[in-house]
Protein: Diaminopimelate decarboxylase
Amino acid sequence: MTHQDLLAVAQEFGNPVYVYNASTMEAQYKRLDKAFKGVKKVKFHYAVKALSNLSVLKLLHSFGCGMDTVSIQEVQLALQAGVPAKDIIFTPNGVSLEELEAAAKLGVQINIDNLSILEQFGTRHPEIPVCVRINPHVMAGGNTNISVGHIDSKFGISIHQVPLLLRIVENTGMHINGIHMHTGSDILDIDVFLYASEILFETAKRFTNLDFIDFGSGFKVPYKTGDIETNIEELGEKLTTRFNEFCKNYGKELTLAFEPGKFLVSEAGKFLVQVNVIKQTTSTVFAQVDSGFNHLIRPMLYNAQHHIENISNPAGKERFYSVVGYICETDTFANNRRISEITEGDVLAFHNAGAYSFSMASNYNSRFRPAEVLWYDGKSHLIRKRETFEDLVANQVEFQL
Structure:
């Protein structure tokens, strides 16, 4: 997409607006697929939580993706998008037995991450195959809030509890058909990932009738020029060799599974905002835009850096700006950032806005959530309308005084 394409989207649909490039998603999927072409059976389940628009789910499924879901609502969205139940894995955390049973009734693959629910589910439904999520006690991830495989994490069944896990399986007669882990997001060191994989392989040996091993995801994408990213090609080469070796020793061709979310959609997304005010203080030049952390919370929540481009004046002389929002709390997108000279009314594009942008958006300050647009085959397609005041009050029930 060119700057002119993006400006045309902003003109047609208004600001702020999320724009997703379909060709970028397809390129990322093909890159993953190529990296693991040496494995006979590979399955990529897209992590729906990253971006759950139905049109995006349909698009990714058309490439060959299954869906990784973490709530019964995401399961229903995936089914609504036309994804067969057999291609959906349900990997929640801390949900009730009733929610797991509701998902199982829909026919999706169940993935359980605690012994209490595992025993209850196995006792009531020993005939339903279950995957178990293991916590390898390996610290991986770019931020403590997205590192989920360490010893203090709430996620997964500790590797030290595997003997108890095996006892539950034996007592209930349930069938464990998969082993799963997810160490965290923004993985840089593939050796740490491979180390955790060895722990998963050792655990898998304890189960005699597996169909798949799921290594989660967390592959890092670049957020700025020269940024480090996960070397997916090197990981593919090394893990392929080790996985094929394991299958040979196991005596069965298992499926190698991953759950990429950010990797597939992050770089495909741009978030367009308009500059309301240029405010000069004694120490800072603020570019105040028509959005805030109600639409893009990652910089505030994860200290994430999103490259910001002035697409109204891309070739202008660079100056230093702090880009801030209109929320009545600190909502700083960028501090002292070099950006082409900005004037009021200019449109700024936030890069890497495909993942965890709209999906984490809110109506804080009673602001509307923006529209979503899919750029497909050289054209813009509205895939979610901008909210209105009617949407804001639709589910409120006025108390009559």
Observations:
- Residues 232-250 form the longest helix (19 residues).
